[in-house]
Known about the structure:
By secondary structure, the protein is α/β, with parallel strands linked by helices. Helix content is 36%, strand content 16%. It contains ten helices and eight strands. The protein has helices spanning 2-7, 13-20, 36-45, 69-72, 81-84, 107-115, 129-133, 136-141, 179-183, 186-202; strands spanning 25-29, 51-54, 57-60, 76-78, 97-100, 121-125, 147-150, 161-163. The strands form two sheets. A four-stranded antiparallel beta sheet has the order 2-3-1-4. Strands 7-6-5-8 form a four-stranded parallel beta sheet. It is globular and about 50 Å long. 23% of the residues are buried. The model has no long low-confidence stretch (mean pLDDT 87).
Amino acid sequence: xxxxxxxxxxxxxxxxxxxxxxxxxxxxxxxxxxxxxxxxxxxxxxxxxxxxxxxxxxxxxxxxxxxxxxxxxxxxxxxxxxxxxxxxxxxxxxxxxxxxxxxxxxxxxxxxxxxxxxxxxxxxxxxxxxxxxxxxxxxxxxxxxxxxxxxxxxxxxxxxxxxxxxxxxxxxxxxxxxxxxxxxxxxxxxxxxxxxxxxxxxx
Length: 203
């Protein structure tokens, strides 16, 4: 595939193997619905032996079932560690108006809501209305009361902060979804770069 061929001259075999190797499973402890201490007690109750806690990030060796009470209650939210590290840089420790410009299903918008302790307003926008609508049922589940879905940016609302997690090639998820590597081409990368520049310009 183009993806691996393009990296073969820059990365070693070990590097390429590492890209393909599934990593540990990460969850964010949702402080809008629970506390780190409550989650630690819950993990002890279910006799989960292998886990790490780094701030509000819970790292497991294996996935939890979709029906797990901690997931259904919105206390734990599946979110990669790298994704969890973005929102704290927004400096939203006081009530502000924040635009999540590429919200998708709302992972970072929900994280913003938790850090802001449901103060201020998080405006969640995505050009794909179908993806954005997936956020609706998650608002009650995660107790995210300060998130508003935004379907039109033409009103020129002013925001204190703008978060842009622009669409990308998806290469960071190849370990979980190997088929992504087959879809990456020079043409697809060119389209992604053009879309990213357009989004950044409008932000």
